[in-house]
Amino acid sequence: MSSNSLLGGAPRVVNIGLRGFADEIASQGADVVQVDWRPPAPARRAVLELLARLGAREAAIARANDEGLRRMQSANPVLVDVQPAGKVIAGLGERVLLHAGPPIGWERMCGPMRGAVAGAIVFEGWASDLAAAERLAASGGVTFHPNHYFDAVGPMTGITTRSMPVLVVENRAPGAGNRAYCMINEGLGKVMRFGANDEEVLARLAWLRDVFGPLLGAALRAAGGLELVPLVARGLAMGDEMHQRNVACSALTLRAMAPHLAQAAGDTETLSKCLAFIAGNEQFFLNIGMVMGKSIMDPVRGLEACSLVAAMCRNGTDFGVRVSGTGDAWFTAPVEMPQGLYFPGYSEADANPDMGDSAIMETIGLGAFAMASAPAVVGFVGAGRASDAVAFTRAMGQITLARNPRWTMPALDFQGVPAGIDLRRVVESGIQPAINTGIAHRRAGVGQVGAGVARAPLGCFDAALVAFARSLGIET
Amino acid sequence: MSSNSLLGGAPRVVNIGLRGFADEIASQGADVVQVDWRPPAPARRAVLELLARLGAREAAIARANDEGLRRMQSANPVLVDVQPAGKVIAGLGERVLLHAGPPIGWERMCGPMRGAVAGAIVFEGWASDLAAAERLAASGGVTFHPNHYFDAVGPMTGITTRSMPVLVVENRAPGAGNRAYCMINEGLGKVMRFGANDEEVLARLAWLRDVFGPLLGAALRAAGGLELVPLVARGLAMGDEMHQRNVACSALTLRAMAPHLAQAAGDTETLSKCLAFIAGNEQFFLNIGMVMGKSIMDPVRGLEACSLVAAMCRNGTDFGVRVSGTGDAWFTAPVEMPQGLYFPGYSEADANPDMGDSAIMETIGLGAFAMASAPAVVGFVGAGRASDAVAFTRAMGQITLARNPRWTMPALDFQGVPAGIDLRRVVESGIQPAINTGIAHRRAGVGQVGAGVARAPLGCFDAALVAFARSLGIET
Questions:
Q1: Could you tell me if B273 and A258 are in contact, meaning their C-beta atoms sit under 8 angstroms apart?
Q2: Among chain A residues, CA nearest to B390
Q3: Percent of chain A residues topping a pLDDT of 70
Q4: Which of A229, A330, B162, B171 sits at a 20 to 30 Å CA gap from A288?
Q5: Do B412 and A248 touch (CB under 8 A)?
Q6: Does B386 touch chain A (CB under 8 A)?
Q7: Which one has a higher pLDDT value, B20 or A208?
Q8: Looking at residue B18, what is its pLDDT?
Q9: Smallest Cβ distance to B279: which of A259, A267, A384?
């Protein structure tokens, strides 16, 4: 886990034109990674010089990173309950809305996030209709905070309010004990996380609140919780990368919980609907994976001299990064557009820029980082060849410090997923973390229109490096 | 699908020392298959000369094989019901036992098959205890027939009697409409298919007959059946090869059926037990896959001049092969020992030779033929490298006529599984079909002791080739 060799050579830049990158790998055999050196842009030279000066603190950084990696790899996240958000998330009260990504106010929010905000306000009864809800939000009648401030995460818009049922994950690692929270995945298409907010959307949320959430919570309590590290390990052997593809983990979750759901259910009719709800949504596990990720990464926050990325998230306007050694500070840059495939009738012209807290999956080494395990996913960004999938994972291996031995990939002969993004490696290589993502329509109320791969903007990491160096007494 | 080029060159023999084979592939890049030519053993020269003379009938054989492949690849097997075997299998009456493999009598039966026979006789009430059951069987008081004669298959011992509940698969392809039958998978360890027969085993069979079977049957009827070709396609993208590994397909079956099981159940307590039974057995799908395989291959039987292998099976004593063009004849040879891993406390000294109708999975291009999709399985026979898994699939591609476009393997860039074993290619290459299998204890009553890979004996195919040539008027 030491990275002594990292700063010895000249700065390297990997060719991140993915298609070409993958083609070159394929043509040169799977073990050859093409690395092109390019002179860095003038604006980045100062940051690269600062990076070189960080070499003087290498021992302290390596020690801190080892501790950060130890916390990541010893985490024991267990899905233990479902509860109303307002009951378990301290401070989530009346007229408070949590959202995905770094802090943002109504005036800078993108269309789908505004749509979700309006829907949630109506759902909570703080306004009688969507128009009144928008007026309330625009007039400062509600308060916005990032999910990440409240031990929570949310996919896409990520809007979380007090009466919504949230999945509760407890990190049972010795010395940890932290809990994290995330809404239940609503399904695909026209759902609030993609900005939809009509009666069908709100009725589904009410059913989750009144019927599904309480039953799943009771089943989880009766089962003594569901251990997530082994479940994800199985998912990696079954074609999931746990961000864009959760087919296996969703089915394995249903398998594990079905007997307990049956025991907790009052009647077979309600039970049948709840089983069908899980069975009908192959992304059901995504939100479980996200709250697992939050519970794994929160103990890694605030370690002095630790250069590990503790969180990546986006609100549809800004991309935000947090680094362990720089505490609660956000480093932001304008969010990029995902590259991907669109549902019939939609195109990039309809797409909202990248959005959601779900990049927590990549932060723990899953999603695009584990693409080698999910060749079906690269169908969204290329020819869908297994070699393309491997190329993603190998590239992300360039910016991470470890391989997670608990999460291995059969296609790479059971090598662990690349985990622990090192701020320094991102800055040095110029390789932008890849993030598998859904794509929302840019207008409020429409919903999902595609899926693809987004890139974390380099600007976040360059800014974070300056602050990280300063935290160690090294100024530009 | 034509094989005009097949007989043009000198006879080839592929090196089937698997370890070396895989190593060579790995060292030469994934697309290179090592083929060593060796002079055939004297005993095989006559068969190879006969094979060369078959070239005169190439056009007729190619036409027949195309029709056989068309039937395989257009099959539409649907799991439609569960019923008592005696109700749906014509002729399965009092004191009749169906068994795995080619025909065999009590005197030549191996230990575990005798154990299963005795258990089934007690289960049916034809004798009061196991000792009396053995006396009854030894004295000719019961009749034995192969499952394959009754549109049925059974794993390992494969014992099927009238009151056992059987899965019913209907092949809904236009012009087909045939049905096939197989017992419900009992779980792992001490179960009748591995020769166990104590009270626990018989009590489980009674529960399957009285509770689980009727409920699953009702749920399947309510659901309008479960289409199996798309289910298996998904399993291949999720690490299953559907013989030794059925984790994904078992979970997907549970997912598909759970809402219907809930609706069909009278109470949540019974339902919870039934859901837990499926959830607790990752090989639950195996028997569904087998009966699917039988329903796919039965329409391929009896096509004049068709050199496709229609069935491979074993009874623990003999290995049996049927070829389409030679009708109902069996070609048998002594069964070989599987190579594999043993459960703690057991070794090859405890092992029974290869057994079961489950080689129908390889006959349709799954199991060892689809190993590239299930690298986890090669842990049973080697270092468990993904390249080993690919080597199995590529080797089996040498003895098959087609790639099944409906069942593709992500690890091979979505190439179809090698399907349609050509008798001529097996004889010519000397490559023995590989079969993923469980390993039973050689004594009655013990159960499963390991898992590994077995090989179909070449003698079956040499004998079949002589008969096949004769069916086309070509004599030795």
A1: no
A2: A411
A3: 91
A4: A330
A5: no
A6: yes
A7: A208
A8: 40
A9: A259
- Lay out the sheet containing A165-171: strands in order across: A152-153, A179-183, A165-171, A77-84, A226-227
Which of B153, B179, B220, B224 shows the shortest CA–CA distance to B75?
Answer: B179
Task: Place B263 in a pLDDT band, splitting at 50, 70 and 90.
Answer: very high
Q: Which of A251, A258, A386 sits opposite B275 (nearest CB)?
A: A258
**By CA distance, what is A388's nearest residue in B?**
B413
Q: Which residues of B touch A281 (CB under 8 A)?
A: none
> Looking at the partner chain, which of A239, A275, A384 has a beta carbon nearest the beta carbon of B238?
A239
Amino acid at B260: H
Beta partners for B167?
Answer: B82, B182
For the domain with range B4-73+301-471, which CATH number is right: 3.90.1700.10, 1.10.10.10, 3.90.950.10, 3.40.50.2300?
A: 3.90.1700.10
Q: Decide if B252 touches A, using CB distance below 8 A.
A: yes
Contact A247 B260 (CB under 8 A): no
pTM above 0.95, yes or no: no
Following DSSP, what letter does each residue of A165-191 receive, concatenated? Answer: EEEEEEE-STT---EEEEEPP--SSS-
Residue A417 near residue A365, CB atoms below 8 Å: yes
Is A386's CB within 8 Å of B412's CB? yes
Asked if A272's CB is within 8 angstroms of B268's CB, the reply is no
Q: Which residues contact A447 (CB under 8 A, 6 or more apart)?
A: A189, A190, A191, A194, A195, A196, A440, A441
What the block records as the tokens of B449 is: 């002791």
A271 phi and psi, to 5 degrees? -60, -45
The pLDDT value given to residue B39: 59
For residue B329, pLDDT beyond 60: yes
Q: How far apart are CA A438 and CA A449, in angstroms?
A: 8
Q: Whole-angstrom Cα distance, residue B426 to residue B423?
A: 5
Which stretch of A5-19, B285-299, B345-359 has the lowest confidence by average pLDDT? A5-19
**Residue range B139-194, pLDDT digits in tens:** 999 999 999 999 999 999 999 999 999 999 999 999 999 999 999 999 987 899 98
- Residue among A266, A268, A386 minimizing CB distance to B411: A386
Beta strand A77-84 pairing with A226-227: antiparallel
Cα nearest neighbour of B268 on chain A: A262
Which homologous superfamily does the CATH classification assign to the domain defined by A77-293? Enterococcus faecalis V583 domain (3.90.1710.10)
Task: Quickly tell me which residue has 């394959």 as its tokens.
Answer: B148
Classified by CATH at the fold level, domain A18-74+301-471 comes out as v583 fold (3.90.1700)
Does residue A199 belong to the interface with chain B, where contact is any CB pair within 8 Å?
no
Q: What are the start and end residues of each CATH 3.90.1710.10 domain in chain B?
A: 77-293
- ipTM for the assembly: 0.88
Mean pLDDT to the nearest integer, B287-292: 98
Give A283-301 pLDDT, tens digit per residue.
Answer: 999 999 999 999 999 999 9
- How much of chain B, in percent, has pLDDT values that exceed 90? 80
Q: Contact B263/A265, CB-based, under 8 Å? A: no
Test mutation, B27, B242, B272, chain A, max A CBs within 10 A:
B272
- Residue intervals in chain B for CATH 3.90.1700.10: 4-73+301-471
- Structure tokens that stand for B447 in this block: 């159960």
pLDDT in tens, A427-449: 999 999 999 998 889 988 888 88
| Cβ contacts of B412 on chain A, cutoff 8 Å | 386
Q: B410 and A375 in contact by Cβ < 8 A?
A: yes
Give me the amino acid identity at B351: A
Domain with CATH 3.90.1700.10 in chain A: 18-74+301-471
Closest chain B C-alpha to A316 CA, distance in angstroms: 32
